[in-house]
Amino acid sequence: MNHVYTADEWASLLGQLKAVELAPASVEGQAATWEGLMPGEVLATRKSRTCLAWAGDGRKYVLKVYPDAGRAGREAGVMAWLRAGGLTVPAPLAVGEHALLREFVEGTPLKQTSDSDLVETCAQLGRWLRRCHEIGADHPAAGRDAGATWLVGDMNFGNYVVGTADFLLWGIDFGDTRIGDAYDDVGEGIMRILIRPPAFTVLNWEAAVGFIDAYATADAGGSGGPRVTGGEELGPARQRVIPAVQRAFVQMAAWRHGDADMLWAADTFPETWGRVVAAAERCSMLGM
């Protein structure tokens, strides 16, 4: 066993797992395999106890265990829905009252993106997020509120990887998913780009503009048009995101116990963003 679980705890967790509806057909009849999984490297302990789980044939999975009941089931359901819609999300395989077993995606975390790849990678993230919101908006639960969708809920770059096998961007963590305004995710995404170390560089601002532009203009991919953003052009999208980014900075300040730098960033963002967007528009007109 690893240091997170005793043998009895591990056996109990595996015993509660049941196949996820909409899981790949290949998982049928694999309950015996799940029962034989062995715990591996611990990946996270803050919001969930998450670790690798190894099968006897060498395949590895990810097991997440939450302290609160039902959260694993919500995450599994949203991931299954998004994956069925064609989004690059690891397949949720089995779920229990507190535990979720999902596929492991081999890849490079987005937070390790090099400076040379940052702008294109953030544009890729914008397109991925737009598709995520479009699929989420078609979920029956989201349809109860006009303009609502299932959110990622945590745009931390550690929740995304670029796949080793396919070089595609994958969203791998939906533990904070909830129904809400799509621009809550978009605003946090820009905030996360801007504070990427070293924070607030010219490159980060350029990547943030590329992210919102890619989100606003991405092909909706078959759900009847850009329902989430209302078909906005770049100008309206760039303006609409401002209060969402400010809220994200304020929330980050709270997470950091009153971080004055994050509160300063929230206050000054509209003015700085205006200058950055104006510069981007001039470059666009000059064909740069």
Task: Describe the protein.
By secondary structure, the chain is α+β, with helices and mostly antiparallel strands. The chain has 2 domains: 98 residues, Phosphorylase Kinase, domain 1 (2-Layer Sandwich), CATH 3.30.200.20; 178 residues, Transferase(Phosphotransferase) domain 1 (Transferase(Phosphotransferase), domain 1). The protein is built from 8 helices and 11 strands. It is elongated and about 60 Å long. The termini are far apart.
What's the number of helices?
8
Low-confidence stretches: 222-231
Ends apart, CA distance between termini:
56 Å
Examine the secondary-structure arrangement and name the CATH architecture of the largest domain.
Answer: Orthogonal Bundle
CATH superfamily of the largest domain: Transferase(Phosphotransferase) domain 1
The count of strands amounts to: 11
* Strand percentage: 15-25%
- Compressed to H and E, one letter per element, the order equals HEHEEEHEEEHEEEEHHHH
Radius of gyration: 20 Å
Q: Fraction of residues in helices?
A: 40-55%
CATH-derived topology of the largest domain = Transferase(Phosphotransferase), domain 1
**Biggest β-sheet, characterized?**
6 strands, antiparallel
Q: How many domains, as an integer? A: 2
| Arrangement of strands in the largest sheet | 1-5-6-4-3-2
* Basic shape: elongated
CATH class (first level) name of the largest domain: Mainly Alpha
Average residue pLDDT: 89
Secondary-structure-derived class: alpha+beta
